[in-house]
Specification:
five-stranded parallel beta sheet, Cobalt-precorrin-4 Transmethylase, domain 1, alpha/beta, 3 domains, 323 residues, 36% helix, 20% strand, flat, single chain, Rossmann fold
Length: 323
């Protein structure tokens, strides 16, 4: 009997495992709270440069409350309203442009991204060229590279990129990374950099953030026990894409990324008896609940949560929004 049949038809049993931790990280909570607190204190509108976090549901919700999202500052009229920079960070040219226009600017960059910015600046002051491991075009990469003069940061995306670097083993170099990458892929990239450049300097603490690491480890702990993994997140969310890839690498027959339950291709789940669900760091739990409910409509679901680590990280709001 088809698992797609509802109503009085018998539903096929399905073991559903919820990965934990999943969903919002402290940096995302801080960024969203920054917009909501600015709206509460100052009223609408509040302008936000780029998506505050990579999640359409979150962005639309904030729009409904009075937030206006822009790609660049020149889209904003002269205003006394708050202008917020997204969690991914911005090049130095952005706050400089905001200051030139006397904007009330609030920086909601995740503190763990700011850490990477400061590290890059220190290495630059000490005469090192920065090798940045990341994805071209991602706003976090653009923000990190934009902390320094053009040419001071060299982006590498693949092992082949590292092999083609023009530096000698004696060139003063340092590496840093985007915070939302695959832990395993980045480990391989760092090993390749260290093999080519034995004197390259790395960060005191890993640049990949705690939430990215924890969510990937939670997926690894579950992926071999299930036939499919559903990652709730946005297609432009780096950490969500890495979760899907992690499940695939660990052997899941089906590994899909969906923004909402309506995007699920149910034909992929016909005949399966075990599925896991996780969520990227910018996906709200409400969307996870929506996906779980969609599975309940179609299957006789037994739910368990698999917890791999506890998270208690907290970041205070930007100083402009603190009481």
């Amino acid at each position: 009997m088809s698992a797609n049949m509802t109503g009085k038809a018998r539903k096929l049993p399905l073991r559903l495992i919820l990965c934990a931790p999943r969903g919002f990280c402290a940096g995302v909570v801080r960024a969203i709270d920054s917009v909501e607190e600015a709206l509460r204190r100052h009223g609408a509108p509040v302008y936000v440069r780029h998506e505050i976090v990579h999640n359409k549901y979150v962005v639309e919700d904030l729009k409904s409350k009075g937030a206006i999202f822009v790609d660049e500052l020149d889209e904003i009229p002269d205003t006394n309203a708050p202008v917020i920079f997204s969690a991914h960070g911005v090049p130095k040219s952005v706050p400089e442009a905001a200051k030139a226009r006397n904007f009330f600017a609030i920086d909601a960059t995740c503190p763990l991204v700011t850490k990477v910015h400061r590290e890059a600046e220190i290495h630059h002051k000490r005469g090192r060229t920065i090798i940045l491991i990341g994805h071209k075009g991602h706003p976090e990469v653009e923000g990190t590279a934009g902390q320094l003069p053009e040419g001071a940061v060299v982006l590498v995306e693949t092992l082949d990129d590292i092999a083609r670097l023009p530096f000698s083993a004696q060139t003063p170099l340092a590496w840093c990374s985007q915070t939302t990458l695959s832990v395993d892929d980045t480990r391989d990239m760092v090993a390749a950099l260290q093999a080519r450049f034995p004197h390259i300097i790395g960060p005191h603490r890993d640049d990949i953030c705690y939430a990215t690491t924890n969510r990937q480890e939670a997926v690894k702990a579950v992926a071999r026990d299930v036939q499919a993994m559903v990652v709730v997140g946005a297609p432009n969310s780096s950490n969500s894409q890495r979760l899907r890839e992690t499940a695939e690498r660990e052997g899941c027959k089906v590994s899909v990324l969906v923004q909402r339950a309506a995007e699920i291709d149910w034909s992929l789940f016909e005949g399966l008896t075990s599925v896991a669900i996780t969520a990227g760091a910018s996906a709200p739990e409400k969307l996870v609940d929506e996906v779980v409910d969609a599975f309940r409509e179609r299957f006789d679901v037994g739910i368990e949560t698999r917890l791999t680590t506890q998270e208690n990280m907290f970041f205070p709001l930007p100083k402009e929004l603190r009481s």
